[in-house]
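Progress against Task 2.4 (sequence-to-structure conversion) is shown through the following example record, which the project officer requested during the mid-term review.
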Amino acid sequence: MALVFPTSPVEGRAYSGFRYVNGVWKKSPTGMALPKNYIVNPAMQHSQQNARAGASTNAYYLADQWAGQFSGATTYAFASLASGRLWLSVSASGTAAAADYTGFTQKVEGQRIADLRWGTADAVPAVLRFTALVNIEPAGGNRAIAVTIRGPSPYPVISFTVTVTTVETVFTVAIPPPTTGTFPISNLTGFEVWFVFVGGTSHRVNTSGVWTTGGAIGTTTMSSGALGDGSSLTVGDVGFYADPYATAAAPPFETPDYTAELRACQRYWCKVMGLKGGASSATNAARIGTTLPVQMRAIPAMTAVGSPGIYDGTVTPVLAGAATSNLSSLQAAEANWTTAGLVAGRAVSNYYKTDADYFAMNARL
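Structure tokens generated for the chain above:
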């Protein structure tokens, strides 16, 4: 059957595996989307902050860059599994109210997606692929969840309904290019990826697979109603790929190099130890700092976790009372850490005690 190409196409128009470039319809050189994955920590290899431990806390980072989110009377548990999966479980049964929701989300930095040119006439289609399975209590069965891509305010958003079963399945979603809306290409949030297990009516858009505006993160056709205790959603191997020839096919998922992906994660959150400086008085360690492992997305917030100690050759007091006026995206540099028992004029260093005693550097989106 002959293809009937659209008449008067605009530059970059995609159609049935072809793309209109420089006045000519050109066949895709590949039968699938391009291999570059825009997601950070797509195989959930790293969980620097919480070491895969579970929690029932909103905005909890169960793995680097992956947050568990919920709102409403029902409570949920989140964890990062050793198998490289995100896990969400209902820990108190109930029916979602209009404003309730829960799911996994990642904010993708604008600089990572600049080449997609979203929000312009040259916007590039994309493909999202992932694995998922559900466990529905007490009756079992399938569940239709929502998969959502949402830009920053004024929230250009597109959601898809995906029916998930008890067998882990690979899903592929073709994302049409948004030619309107604002998608920053700076170090701000370019867009968010959501996997929505529960979404109340106020969080749903009318049509699956259509770009719209608003803050919705779900679809009207996703499953609703009560979930029993122990119902769960598991998601993993997330890939987001540019699809310039509109193939709607994802490339094979590749687990990133472990060390390289750790560096990508540390752009947003990392631990530091081994700060060095000097004692300006018995209670003051001045200009104590260290170089960060990577340049962070922005100037981070620095927080002492546990009981990080300092040593001046004699005493080992705990650091407390930080002033953070000398931080940068390259350096953890603190002025005037207050402590006790130091000898003025001595060099001081923050020494290793345990993995739980460190400084958290937070430059997350």
